[in-house]
């Protein structure tokens, strides 16, 4: 599926034929049809696999525990690192037109990973750590800036590695959501430590 992923990201789903996938993957046409049923089946299997990987990223963060704010920080840091190390996977996952060729598959915002991310934010509101508001608004406030930064990185608008922006992205999200005042000198130290660890992991 790696061959198909690279072709879809580089040229677009509609511009790639099953024969080009077969040639790039160096397998027989018969094998592709037997396993996937055709190009759409390849794209569906690839998309489901990617969503499962993102789901595992969020599951790992939740399993580590910590406050909702801590978990949100780790999710963003992990997504930034994952974008740097698995660019094509993230690019395909965030493709804006999945419904055109995978109409029965959930959009990323409806996937298990993003549902769990909203759940973390809702937990933060339930515990009084985040301000009370609509869950979609709160989740957008926490993760929307990070997702937009990922999109800009994929588009080539941002040249520096995403982990280098982590401190500012986290601060922006926390200012909008956290109930406790943000003291830059006292409260950014954990974020700075997280940023340094993320940069090291992405290097």
Write up this protein.
The model has no long low-confidence stretch (mean pLDDT 87). The longest helix has 26 residues, at 39-64. With 203 residues, the chain is mainly α. The chain contains twelve helices and no strands. Helix 10 (166-177) runs antiparallel to helix 12 (189-202). The two termini are 26 Å apart.
List keywords for this structure.
203 residues, mainly alpha, 72% helix
Distance between the termini: 26 Å
> Overall pLDDT, averaged?
87
Number of strands: 0
Q: Characterize the biggest β-sheet.
A: none
Estimated radius of gyration: 19 Å
Shape summary: elongated
Low-confidence stretches: none
The computed structural class is mainly alpha
What's the SSE pattern? HHHHHHHHHHHH
In DSSP terms, counting alpha (H) and pi (I) runs of 4 or more, how many helices?
Answer: 12
Please indicate the percent range of residues in DSSP E strands (runs of 2 or more). under 5%
Q: Residue share in helices?
A: over 70%
Topology, element by element:
Blueprint: H1 2-11, H2 18-25, H3 29-36, H4 39-64, H5 68-85, H6 87-93, H7 98-101, H8 112-126, H9 135-154, H10 166-177, H11 184-187, H12 189-202
Task: Quickly describe the structure.
The chain has 203 residues and is mainly alpha-helical.
